[in-house]
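User: I need a structural model of TetR family transcriptional regulator from Rhodococcus jostii for a docking pre-check later this week. Nothing fancy, just the predicted structure tokens so I can convert them on my end. Input:
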Amino acid sequence: MAPTRERGRRDSARRQQILDTALELFATRAYEDVSVDDVCDRAGVAHGLISYYFGGKRGLFAEAVRQAWNELLEYERPREDEQDATERIHGFVRRHFEYVAEHPHRFTTLMRTGHADREVYDIVIGARGEALAELQLSLGCPVNPPAQLRAALRGWMGYLDNMTLDWAFHRDLDLDVVTDMCVQALIGAVRATAGERYDPDVELATLSRVAAIPTLATSAAQPRA
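Assistant: Understood. Predicted structure tokens for TetR family transcriptional regulator:
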């Protein structure tokens, strides 16, 4: 039994080593520019192990995407000490950015799936569905929300993706600031589904005034006291 367990641990460690290497390479290069030889040489493993563990390059990429999504979803989940919707949503968004800060390669891989086949597509759709369900649960939404609310939540998730890409590239906004921006955007999106209307002249004046402030980005980047 002991040799079998030890062999199992070695297999698991070697498989994970290949996955970690693949995540790094797929994050920095296009899928077509990463070869099986590249992964094996960087990981220091025999070339046949890609087929043995993953069935080839496509299977390796699919598993890398699956792992990255699972890690992100698990990290974002509400904590036991977050009792109300405000705490859960702020925690969800903040942990989203914390994960990206700690694992930039993994997030980049998640965003580079435009060429993906059906297996990868299904993984991404399933993960996004799980993230949306977690968001609805944190907000106290029904399982099947009305069309406007569903569209608003899905639209906000796209906003969060693009905010994260910008933040990951520039890193010129404090974590508290970017978290608050995303939470406020969510509040605005959800509030709009309730039919609340604003004076268009007032709104346009506000947008113009805020967008014209040259020190906005600089002041926002400063950490809170």
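Before docking, keep this in mind: Residues 167 and 173 are 7 Å apart (CA to CA).
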